[in-house]
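Structure first, sequence second, as always.
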């Protein structure tokens, strides 16, 4: 056994299915030295996405499975985000630790990355944009402006189930709440 994998049980942990492999970077990235060090978060897809799982890993990347974790695909648009080269590891590493799925829209999701920030996709992961409006980055003295689009050391993001569009973000600089799906 080598590497991080996601094991599955359909009988509340009495038996486990041994997957063929875990999330792994495609050959072009693996050859460049990228490998999954840790799996930080598993998020099951919505009811209308049977068999879908999302995995957030370190180094920060998002994977998607459509077959309950037997195979995984890298969400390449996040990997290729224009700010990617500037994402820096925090004390806990450079990890994608939070995945929030909008229950009202199967194409809308958020991810939290330490230390890059919160990113949002409204097209099922085909494109991503920073969702860090007015969240401070005052712990990096040489990084103006104080309210940057990315660079936040996000520790967790979460949705409020009883309030559509309410998202919380906790970081080094405080706890933030958005009531308009991270638009502000």
């Amino acid at each position: 056994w080598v590497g991080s994998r996601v094991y599955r049980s359909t009988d509340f942990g009495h038996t486990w299915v041994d997957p063929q492999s875990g999330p792994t970077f495609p050959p072009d990235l693996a050859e460049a030295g990228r490998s999954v060090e840790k799996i930080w978060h598993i998020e099951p897809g919505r009811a209308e996405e049977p068999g879908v799982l999302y995995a957030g890993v370190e180094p920060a990347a998002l994977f998607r499975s459509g077959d309950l974790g037997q195979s995984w695909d890298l969400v390449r648009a996040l990997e290729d985000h224009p700010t990617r080269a500037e994402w820096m590891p925090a004390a806990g590493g450079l990890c994608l630790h939070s995945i929030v799925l909008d229950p009202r829209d199967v194409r809308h999701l958020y991810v939290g990355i330490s230390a890059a920030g919160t990113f949002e996709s409204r097209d099922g992961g085909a494109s991503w944009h920073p969702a860090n409006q007015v969240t401070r980055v005052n712990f990096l003295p040489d990084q103006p402006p104080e309210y940057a689009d990315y660079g936040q050391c996000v520790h967790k993001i979460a949705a409020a189930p009883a309030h559509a569009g309410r998202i919380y973000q906790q970081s080094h600089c405080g706890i933030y709440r958005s009531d308009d799906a991270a638009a502000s």
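Margin note: Helices lie at 27-31, 76-79.
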